[in-house]
Design goal:
Blueprint lengths: L3 H17 L5 H7 L6 H13 L3 E2 L8 E2 L1 H11 L7 H12 L4 H16 L2 E5 L8 E10 L2 E8 L4 E7 L6 H15 L7 H5 L11 H17 L5 E4 L16 H7 L2 H8 L8 E4 L11 E8 L7 E8 L4 H21 L1
Length: 338
């Protein structure tokens, strides 16, 4: 365990290095921070921190920089989440409230996160497997053609065409719509197949093939849409941090193009807690020089998806964590009200 004073020295090194991009020396630390001890004592503390792997000396300069282990301790022990100012909170609310549908909410969230943190923003669409049915609409387009519209509690809308085996009248369409909704509204998507399996038997013989076709289309939609979707924005922000990536930025950009990698980075969608993965804690080699800050969002207590940012390990962790948490809270409110 580090002493409180050495934790204080580590905190000062992280803050200075994040702010100045320059390795930090003992003289600069004692000048900038009220550590209450002599430069010689600070030098001694820095030697211990280096020995224990919390800071390192790049090149032959007199200064030190935090290691992944140092940032980890800073985040775990030292960093309170920086609250956003009232104008920042109002700006988030105003920007997100103008959204017209779920695609717009997700698109705005990505742009907002990238602007607030000046990092790469990643937002996962609410997963259908964790959603409930708000409404199923059936619209007659032609005597033997229907449109099926599936609306979720998170505002997601899926549309499918249904070519029926025989013409179906408006009365039968209305009847099917009513019976279908009575069974599935408010229920989880994972429960829907079981809830509708015997529905065709409750219809007249001649309508059963059409009912079965509508149900098959509905269930196909559920299966197709379980695939997770992500939106990413602000990749250009990484170019501002070129010197933070040891060799080249290319491995980072390549990793960000792989959806599977990003989903793993964000973590289990149902976990609402904030996670911070630093440097080599990211399993993907291309992201060993980055940190990921992610949190769950949702319309109730349970998270339906994750959002977060990816940036260099030299990151303003308290500020980034505050921005990510605030945006997630507002997105959750919008979904709850939509």
């Amino acid at each position: 365990m580090l002493s409180e004073r050495r934790l204080e020295v580590l905190r000062a090194i992280v803050q200075d290095y994040v702010g100045t991009e320059e390795p930090v020396g003992s003289k600069a630390l004692t000048e900038r921070h009220n550590l209450g001890v002599s430069p010689a004592t600070v030098r001694n503390d820095m030697a211990v921190l280096e020995e224990e792997g919390f800071i390192a000396q790049p090149h032959t300069s007199a200064g030190r920089i935090p290691t992944d282990k140092g940032y980890r301790l800073f985040v775990d022990k030292l960093a309170g989440v920086k609250p956003l100012s009232s104008p920042e909170r109002r700006a988030i609310q105003n920007f997100l409230e103008g959204a017209v549908d779920l695609d717009d909410v997700v698109g705005r969230t990505v742009r907002l996160l990238a602007q607030l943190t000046r990092q790469v923003a990643v937002v996962q669409y609410p997963s259908l497997t964790r959603s409930t049915v708000r409404h199923v609409e059936l619209l007659s387009l032609a005597p033997a053609r229907l449109m099926l519209v599936l609306i979720t509690d998170t505002g997601r809308v899926e549309q499918r065409m249904v070519d029926c085996p025989a013409p179906i009248g408006e009365t039968s369409v209305a009847d099917l719509r009513a019976r279908l909704n009575s069974r599935v509204v408010g229920r989880r998507f994972t429960d829907v197949p079981q809830l509708v399996q015997d529905l065709p038997e409750s219809f007249e013989q001649e309508d059963r093939p059409t009912v079965s076709m509508v149900l098959a289309t509905l269930l196909e939609t559920l299966v197709e849409e379980t695939e997770e979707r992500l939106v990413i924005g602000g990749t250009a922000n990484l170019t501002r941090f070129g010197h933070d990536f040891p060799l080249t930025i290319r491995p980072v950009l390549e990793a960000l193009e792989e959806q599977v990698v990003l989903l793993k980075l964000l973590g289990e969608a149902t976990d609402p807690k904030m996670t911070v993965r630093i440097g080599h804690e990211n399993a993907h080699e291309g992201l060993n020089s980055t940190s990921v800050v992610a949190v769950g969002y949702g319309s109730g207590d349970e998270a339906v998806a994750k959002l977060g940012v990816v940036g260099p390990t030299r990151m303003d962790y308290p500020g980034t964590m505050g921005a990510v948490r605030a945006v997630a809270r507002y997105v959750g409110q919008i979904l709850a009200e939509s």
